[in-house]
Amino acid sequence: MSLVAREVKDKRVLKLIRAYLNSGVMINGVVVETDKGCPQGGPLSPLLSNIMLDVLDKELEERNHKFCRYADDNQLYVKTHKAAERVMKSITIFIEDKLKLKVNKRKSAIGRPW
C-alpha cells in the first residue's frame, strides 16, 4: 500500500482500496479471506498494476530496454538469447526485491516474437 499511497493522496480513496483488498473473494457462494494481493480480474486490478508497475516502467526506460506492458503482462525485447537470460534474471530480482512483488516463474519465459 505504500506505493499506492505515494500516488493516491486522498485518504478516503486509500481506505476504500484497503477495504476492497481485505474484503475477500467469493468461491462457490462462500466468502474466502485473501491474505494479500488483488483478486484476479477485479475492477481495481488494472489501476493497481499501473500504480505498482510504473516504477518498473521507469527502470526499464532508464536501462534503455524496449518493452511493452499491458496491466501486469510485460514483454521485453532484446537482441540475443543470452541478453534475454541476463535481463530476465535482473528484472526478476528488481521486481521481487525493490517492488516486493512475486514473479510467477511458470508464466515467465524467454521466447521469440515470431
Q: Which structural class do you get from the secondary structure elements?
A: alpha+beta
- Could you say which overall geometry the principal axes of the C-alpha atoms support? globular
Number of strands: 4
Helix count, per DSSP?
A: 4
How is the biggest beta sheet arranged? 2 strands, antiparallel
- Low-pLDDT ranges: none
In the sheet with the most strands, the strands line up as 1-2
Along the chain, the helix and strand elements come as HHEEHEEH
* Strand content bin: 5-15%
Radius of gyration from CA coordinates? 16 Å
Number of domains: 1
- Distance from first to last alpha carbon: 38 Å
Oligomer: single chain
Mean pLDDT: 87
Binned, the helix content reads: 40-55%
Domain Reverse transcriptase: 1-114
Protein name: Reverse transcriptase domain-containing protein
What is the secondary structure topology, with strand pairs?
Layout: H1 2-7, H2 11-21, E1 25-27, E2 30-32, H3 45-62, E3 66-70, E4 73-77, H4 81-98
Antiparallel strand pairs: 1-2, 3-4
Walk me through the structure:
With 114 residues, the chain is of the alpha+beta class. It has 4 helices and 4 strands, in the order ααββαββα. Strand 1 (25-27) and strand 2 (30-32) form a beta hairpin. The termini are far apart.
Features of this protein?
114 residues, alpha+beta, two-stranded antiparallel sheet, 46% helix, globular, Reverse transcriptase domain-containing protein, RT_dom, DNA/RNA_pol_sf, GrpII_Intron_Splice-Mob/Def
